[in-house]
Write a structure and sequence with these properties.
- The chain has helices at about 85-95, 205-215, 260-270, 290, 300-310, 320-335, 350-360, 370-385, 425-440, 515-530; strands at about 5, 15-20, 30, 35-40, 45-50, 55-60, 65-70, 70-75, 125, 135-145, 150, 155-160, 165-170, 175-180, 185-190, 195-200, 230-235, 245-250, 250-260, 340-350, 390, 395-400, 405, 410, 415, 420, 455-460, 480-495, 495-510.
- Helix 8 (about 370-385) crosses helix 9 (about 425-440).
- Helix content is about 20%, strand content about 30%.
- The strands form eight sheets. The chain has a six-stranded mixed β-sheet. A four-stranded antiparallel β-sheet has the order 1-8-6-3, with no helix packed on it.
- The N and C termini lie far apart (about 60 Å).
- With about 550 residues, the protein is an alpha+beta fold.
Length: about 550
C-alpha cells in the first residue's frame, strides 16, 4: 500500500522547508533508513530519511522549491502501483495561506473516508509535530491549556517529550481549545491528532471521531498484572478529555486509587508506593504536585525493609522514554552497520597537568582537562580530515570545519551538545561552552541546533574513575574518542623507573572511512598536542 510522505517539521519553529537536493529519483528502490532528500529548514540543511520501504513513485516538491510543513513531499509504494487517488486527495488539501495544522492527514496503513469532511470555518486541527529530525512519536508531558481556554497565537499549548528533549510546543493559531486528542503521559505517532482549536462552542466531535477512525490511537501504558491493574476511564462531564488511572491492588479489590498518568509515571520513576500518597485532586485523585511533595514515612520504610526480608521477588518497571528508545535505535544501527575497530594509547600527562595549573593561575580563568582534549582534538582533526569525515552510500564527505560533540550523561540517557568550530575557539571559550551546554542538557533545555552537526565526538568517563573504555560511534561521524582517568603510576623515563601520571584513550573508528594507519597518525598528532600543550597556543 502506497505511503504519503509529507514535508516534515524538522525544527520546533519550522513552518516551511526547501528541498535542497533529492538523493533518490522516481523509480529508485527505497530501504528504511535511506536518505531521501536534503531539506533546508529555518535553522539548518538536514538529511531526511525514509521510514518506509518500497519504490519512489512520485516527487511532490522539486529541488529548490519551498513548501509548507505537511505538504506532499513524495509517495512510496509498490512498483507500478496506481497512486492517482492519492494525488487527487493531495490536490484538494493544498489551499493557499492555510496553516500546517489545517490539513487532516490520514495515518499510514489505515482506512480513511474517501472524501474528508470540510472543516467548519475557523476550526484548525493540530497534529503531533515532528520536533526533531529523528522523532517518530511524542509524549504529552504537560498540557498548559485546558478545554475551553482561549488560545492566542504564540501561546504554549503543551510540553512534548521527544526522543531528545522535552520541548514547549506553541500554537500557530488563535481561538478556543475545543478538543484534546492525547492526555498527559500518552504517546502517539507524529501527525496523530493532538488538539482542535476553533471558535467557542463549535461542535468538533465528528472531526475528532473521523480522525480516530483514521488510526490515531494513543499508546496506554501497561501495568504488570502481578502487581496492579490499570483501567482508563473518563471522569466528570466538565473534563471529558481528562483521564484517571484507577489502580487496584490484586490483594484488595476495595482499595482503589485515582491518579493522573503523569503522576503515575513520576511515582514509578521515584519508586513511590501509590497507596502511601494522599491525592489532592478531584475525588482524591493523585496529581503531579502530590508526587513532588511526597515524603516517605518511617513506617513505610520499615514496611519496605520487612517486605524485602521475606525473600519474595520484587521488581519495578519503568516505560522506556522516547530518548531512551532513540538512543537504543541509533546505537544499535551504528554498531551493526559501521565496522568498528579500536586503537588504544596511553599519554604522559605530566606537562598537561603543569600547563593546566599555570593556565588557571590567570584571574577569572578555569579550564579542565576535558577542555584541553577538545581543543587538541579539534586541531588534530584539521590536520587529519579523513577522521573528520562522514560516510554515505555513494560518497564520503571530508569536513573542513570541526564541530565536536561532547557526550553528557542525563537522567534519561545521553545527550551530545556540539561545540561549533572548536579549532577556532580558545581554551576558556571551549570551557564556557561545554559548561553551558552540560547545564542545559541536564535541565532538558538544549535547543535542537545545539545538538546538530557534529563531525567528531568525545566521551569522557575519567571523572568517574574509569581508566579505559570503548564507545559506539555517534553516526554519521567516523570516529569517537573515549577518555579515561589520569592515573598515578610508576613509569620508565630515560631508563629509570619514576613516579608519573598517565591517561588512556581509545579511538573507535569506522573502517569504511578511517583506515588503521590514518587513525594511528591522528593519535600521534593528538599525542603531540596533549603531551606538549603549549603547542596548542601557537
Amino acid at each position: 500500500m502506497a505511503e504519503v510522505i509529507n514535508m516534515p517539521r524538522l525544527s520546533d519553529t519550522m513552518e516551511e522547508g526547501t528541498v535542497a537536493s533529492w538523493l533518490k529519483k522516481v523509480g529508485d528502490k527505497i530501504e528504511e533508513g535511506d536518505i531521501l532528500a536534503e531539506i533546508e529548514t529555518d535553522k539548518a540543511t538536514m538529511e531526511f530519511e525514509s521510514f518506509n520501504e518500497g519504490t519512489l513513485l512520485h516527487i511532490g516538491i522539486q529541488e529548490g522549491d519551498t513548501a509548507k510543513v505537511d505538504t506532499l513531499l513524495a509517495i512510496i509504494g509498490e512498483e507500478g502501483e496506481d497512486i492517482s487517488g492519492l494525488l487527487n486527495v493531495s490536490d484538494t488539501k493544498e489551499e493557499p495561506e492555510t496553516s500546517t495544522e489545517d490539513k487532516v492527514e490520514a495515518a499510514p496503513e489505515s482506512e480513511t473516508p474517501q472524501e474528508a469532511e470540510a472543516l467548519p470555518e475557523g476550526v484548525v486541527v493540530v497534529t503531533m509535530p515532528r520536533l526533531s529530525d529523528t522523532m517518530e512519536e511524542g509524549t504529552v508531558a504537560t498540557w498548559l491549556k485546558k478545554i475551553g481556554d482561549t488560545v492566542e497565537e504564540g501561546d504554549i499549548l503543551a510540553e512534548i517529550e521527544t526522543d531528545k528533549a522535552t520541548m514547549e510546543f506553541e500554537s500557530f493559531q488563535s481561538g478556543t481549545l475545543l478538543h484534546v486528542g492525547l492526555d498527559e503521559g500518552d504517546s502517539a505517532k507524529v501527525d496523530a491528532l493532538l488538539a482542535i482549536i476553533g471558535p467557542a462552542g463549535a461542535d468538533v466531535s465528528a472531526i475528532a471521531k473521523n480522525f480516530a477512525v483514521g488510526g490515531n490511537s494513543a499508546k496506554k501504558e501497561e501495568v504488570p498484572k502481578q502487581e496492579t491493574k490499570a483501567v482508563i476511564q473518563s471522569v466528570s462531564e466538565e473534563s471529558k478529555t481528562k483521564t484517571a488511572v484507577v489502580v487496584s491492588n490484586t490483594n484488595s479489590d476495595s482499595s482503589r486509587l485515582f491518579i493522573s498518568p503523569l503522576a503515575k509515571k513520576m511515582a514509578e520513576e521515584k519508586g513511590i508506593q501509590l497507596n502511601q500518597v494522599k491525592g489532592s485532586g478531584e475525588n482524591g485523585r493523585i496529581v503531579k504536585r502530590d508526587i513532588e511533595n511526597f515524603t516517605p514515612s518511617v513506617t513505610s520504610s520499615a514496611s519496605i525493609a520487612k517486605f524485602i526480608a521475606t525473600g519474595q521477588e520484587d521488581f519495578d518497571e519503568t516505560p522506556n522514554s522516547n530518548m531512551r528508545k532513540a538512543i537504543a535505535k541509533n546505537l544499535a544501527k551504528s554498531k551493526f552497520t559501521a565496522p568498528h575497530y579500536y586503537l588504544n594509547v596511553e599519554f604522559d600527562m605530566e606537562n598537561a597537568m603543569a600547563f593546566r595549573v599555570q593556565y588557571n593561575s590567570i584571574p577569572d580563568v578555569k579550564i579542565s582537562y576535558n577542555d584541553m582534549i577538545v581543543k587538541a582534538c579539534a586541531l588534530a582533526l584539521r590536520i587529519h580530515p579523513q577522521v573528520n569525515s562522514q560516510w554515505f552510500d555513494d560518497r564520503m564527505k571530508l569536513n573542513n570545519h570541526v564541530h565536536i560533540g561532547v557526550a553528557v550523561a542525563v537522567q534519561d540517557g545521553l545527550l551530545v551538545p556540539v561545540v561549533k568550530f572548536a579549532n577556532e575557539q580558545s581554551l576558556p571559550q571551549i570551557g564556557a561552552a561545554v559548561r553551558e551546554y552540560a547545564g542545559k542538557a541536564r535541565n532538558k533545555k538544549l535547543a535542537l541546533d545545539e545538538m546538530e552537526g557534529s563531525t567528531f565526538t568525545i566521551s569522557n568517563l575519567g571523572m568517574f574513575g574509569i581508566e579505559s573504555f570503548t564507545s559506539i560511534i555517534n553516526q554519521p561521524n567516523s570516529a569517537i574518542l573515549s577518555v579515561g582517568a589520569i592515573v598515578s603510576k610508576p613509569v620508565v623515563k630515560n631508563g629509570q623507573v619514576v613516579a608519573g601520571n598517565t591517561m588512556k584513550l581509545t579511538l573507535a573508528c569506522d573502517h569504511r572511512t578511517v583506515d588503521g594507519a590514518t587513525g594511528a597518525q591522528f593519535l600521534q598528532t593528538l599525542k603531540g598536542f596533549i603531551e606538549n600543550p603549549v603547542t596548542m597556543l601557537v
